[in-house]
Write a structure and sequence with these properties.
Chain lengths: ~70, ~725
């Protein structure tokens, strides 16, 4: 399921990142890679604050929907 | 030998802090050629032969954002003698991603692990020697904020540069990938110099889109390389770029496991997370933000007992520029027996004009101090996140909000703050609309008319903000439908730094940088134009004789005003006030504070208070409410002052766009005022039906059309990742 459906504060593992190659490459550079643990700290109507590799990253819905967990 | 050291690191890793530590005030700020990414260069304290080049904060060396491209072009083409890579010790795993890329460039590198004070406080341990062993380069630990180890880090970089000690990390990737890289290296070896071979082969392997512009490989070489890549891709069932990325992360994971001991795996929410739960909460976020801003503006600009800014400004206006400075110059000038003309020029022209601007400095500085604190503790990036959802509806991104917040103090630093917006069209739109926000200098205009015509109603001031915000929103929607701006704003991604206490140095520096751009105007453009203005309104032709005029209705300025007043007749600037309003509008271009002063002068009061109480009755006689409102709207929205136009020119970096931005603002202001005056006046019975009523209706229809027409649809995918932004 996409990251936007995740429960708050629960740890998930990223299984896939979809979309254009460039979008994927960019998300990867930010630490969103397959098999990485991710949890959602805050969600405002699909816009998320997530914890990945020990840092907090704010993502809008369009990007969060590309991250499959 | 001159040594050039490049400072590279992630956003928020402490690069600016370190750069300031190392160079002190010996900095030169400019732009990277062709783009509006800030370029900072400085000389190392105590080492005149050593230049430090600050690179933009980046997460990787991929070709996907402007900052990354700028940094990587610099590193590859200019080849600094050494790279000083600053790494945030509290987020070491994430930061090493860039480090491992830098180490592939074949440039001597020193890694400095920053924030050691926080690392120690968290009880974590970073083994510098083990890290150095794994990265094959010198590693030092520093605390940039406390100034610990910073000088040593720079000296280490100089030493490494002099020894030309190039790191050579191998066995980073899986066996078959390393083998493929070696094969590619063999093919490239004839066209690339030895030191850069590994970098180029990795980039070629990743099919980096910009590499082929540089390398110019032959067709058969390209084919050969493609076969090598595809073989690995088939073996690993993934695309080559992902393979490199994942294996790079794996390798970093191993390094971290070997060299770093975390006290505890963090699963629980940190303090910072707990704060975020509240301040970015779906329901509470906006009320909290509004409450904070209310306090900020009360302290800076309000009129309560905690309004430090206003007290400072009152003192500057009444005492400093009301008594001390004039008395001082009066004393000097009288004892020198200068003639009346020169006395008038200095006392009324220069001191009056410059003083009016400098009087705002306390309010502006207090506002900027508070905004800088909000920025430094990490709240501003949350604000951008909260606002993104709202701003996206009219085609701007959350990052456009910070420039607008700053612009409530002064438009110049506001427009400059648009730099952090990466995507070109988002930034241009922000520059074009930020000037609509009522800045501190426009407040007296509002004060004058609220007091003179509207019985001091606070609704007028509120409506000024509403008009400013409405102008931003309407412009956002209308502009977005043009081809130049079409397409979604760049998707929002932003790292949110942990909340931390503000540092005095950072706050002072940020406040000063913004405040200075405001103060600088007083000494330059405002000084000059005060002199010109004083001349134009004091001199003229009487009975064919040129000379000083007693009645400024016959001054040169009045001549000019009368000659141009017809332009504004459709906005209701008619009768006795027409030329005065016209002149005041033009002097407003020098600085918006000048508008009220000009009315003061034109109504024959040499000195008026900030809100011009002395001329309220005269204004009320000449301006009908609707004409006053039309004048206010036009002056709030039209071309900003010269200093802000200069900022627009710098940030647009393109004459056509500069003209477009300023022209757009003027046209928008004119059309809005015309509609309000003609239609509002008709409803109130002040204005009769005329050809202008029809024009106003047509313009209104035009605006509605622009708002609701289907916009230009870009054919490519909405998300243009090329320009995607990762600001701090
Ligand atoms: N505790 C601590 N904070 C630091 C240190 N170095 C920088 N900071 C803080 O980290 C934040 C980001 O620093 P800055 O220099 O603006 O980072 P940049 O984005 O890389 O330029 C600022 O609030 C600094 O005060 C350090 O050594 N220790
Ligand atoms: Mg910085």
């Amino acid at each position: 399921m996409p990251l936007t459906f995740a429960q708050l504060n629960q740890e998930y593992v990223i299984v896939r990142i979809t979309g254009q190659d460039k979008v994927r490459a960019h998300l990867r550079n930010l630490g969103f890679v397959e098999n990485e643990k991710v949890s959602v700290i805050q969600s405002i109507q699909g816009n998320l604050i997530v914890s990945i590799k020990g840092v907090r990253v704010a993502l809008d819905k369009s990007l969060a929907n590309r991250i499959m967990i | 030998m001159e040594i050039k050291i490049a400072l590279a690191g992630n956003p928020n890793s402490g690069k600016t802090t370190l750069f300031n530590q190392l160079t002190g005030s010996r900095q030169r700020v400019g732009n990277w050629p062709g783009v509006t990414v800030e370029k900072k260069e400085g000389t190392l304290k105590g080492e005149n032969q050593c230049t430090i080049q600050d690179l933009p904060g980046i997460y990787s060396l991929s070709p996907y954002s402007l900052e990354e491209v700028v940094s990587r072009n610099y590193l590859v083409n200019e080849k600094p003698d050494a790279i000083l890579n600053i790494v945030d010790g509290t987020n070491i795993e994430r930061n090493l991603y860039l480090t491992t890329q830098l180490l592939e460039l074949g440039i001597p590198t020193v890694v400095c692990v920053n924030m050691m004070d926080l690392v120690k406080r968290n009880g974590d341990q970073i083994d510098i020697d083990k890290l150095s062993e794994k990265l094959d380069c010198p590693v030092v630990s520093i605390s940039a904020l406390k100034g610990q180890g910073t000088k040593e880090a720079a000296l280490k970089a100089i030493k490494t540069a002099q020894a030309h000690q190039v790191p050579r990390m191998d066995k980073v990737y899986a066996k078959n990938v390393e083998a493929a890289l070696e094969q590619i290296e063999a093919i490239l070896s004839s066209s690339v110099d030895n030191g850069m071979l590994r970098w180029y082969s990795i980039k070629v392997f990743e099919r980096d889109e910009r590499i082929h512009e540089i390398l110019k490989l032959k067709e058969n070489e390209k084919k050969e390389i493609e076969t090598i890549i595809q073989k690995v891709e088939n073996e690993m069932d993934d695309d080559s770029e992902s393979i490199i990325t994942s294996q790079r992360y794996d390798h970093i994971g191993q390094i971290v496991q070997y060299a770093v001991k975390k006290k505890s795996e963090k699963h629980a929410l940190s303090v910072s997370d707990k704060i975020d739960k509240i301040v970015t909460n779906r329901i509470l976020a906006l009320p909290i933000f509004i409450a904070i801003m209310y306090v900020v503006y009360t302290i800076a600009m309000g009129s309560t007992s905690i309004s430090i800014g206003t007290m400072g400004t009152d003192w500057a206006n009444d005492v400093l520029f009301g008594e001390i400075v004039p008395n001082f110059f009066d004393g000097i000038l009288t004892s020198l027996h200068v003639n009346d003309v020169l006395y008038g020029l200095i006392m009324d022209g220069i001191l009056g004009g410059v003083g009016a601007v400098l009087g705002f400095v306390p309010q502006i500085l207090v506002l900027f101090i508070l905004l800088s604190v909000m920025e430094d503790i990490g709240y501003m990036s949350r604000v951008a996140f909260i606002m993104d959802r709202i701003f996206r509806r009219f085609g701007l991104s959350g990052k456009s909000f910070i420039p607008m917040l700053v612009a409530t103090g002064c438009g110049v630093p506001g427009i400059m703050a648009s730099r952090t917006i990466e995507q070109d069209r988002d930034r241009k739109m922000t520059i074009m609309t930020t000037g609509f926000i009522p800045c501190g200098a426009k407040m007296p205009i509002i004060g004058l008319f609220a007091g003179a015509v509207f019985g001091g109603s606070s609704l007028v001031a509120t409506s000024a903000f509403v008009i400013g915000i409405a102008a931003v929103i309407l412009s956002g929607i209308m502009l977005k439908k043009f081809k130049a701006f079409a397409g979604e704003p760049a998707p929002f991604v932003m790292e949110l730094p942990s909340y931390h206490l503000p540092s005095l140095g950072n706050v002072v520096r940020a406040t000063w940088e913004r405040g200075w751009s405001f103060i600088k105007r007083a000494g330059s453009i405002i000084l000059l134009s005060s002199i010109v203005l004083w001349f134009l309104q004091g001199f003229g032709f009487t009975d064919g004789q040129f000379g000083m005029v007693a009645d400024n209705n016959t001054s040169l300025l009045a001549n000019i005003g009368n000659a141009l007043a017809w332009i504004f007749a459709p906005l209701g600037w008619i009768g006795d006030m027409a030329w005065k309003a016209t002149v005041a509008t033009f002097t407003g271009l020098i600085a918006k504070e000048e508008v009220v002063n000009t009315f003061g002068v034109l109504y024959n009061f040499a000195e008026v208070s900030e809100e011009g109480n002395e001329i309220w009755t005269l204004i009320a006689r000449d301006f009908t409410p609707i004409a006053a409102y039309s004048f206010m709207i036009f002056n709030l929205l039209c071309a900003p002052c010269f200093a802000a136009m200069g900022a627009i020119k710098r940030e647009m970096n393109n004459p056509k766009w500069t003209l477009a931005a300023i022209g757009y603002m003027c046209v928008f202001a004119y059309v809005s005022s015309l509609i309000v005056y003609q239609l509002g006046g008709l409803i109130l019975g002040e204005v009769t039906f005329s050809i202008w009523t029809i024009v106003a209706l047509a313009l209104l229809a035009g605006i509605l059309y622009l708002l609701f027409r289907p916009g230009y649809k870009p054919k490519t995918e909405a998300i243009d990742i090329q320009k995607i932004s990762i600001a701090k």
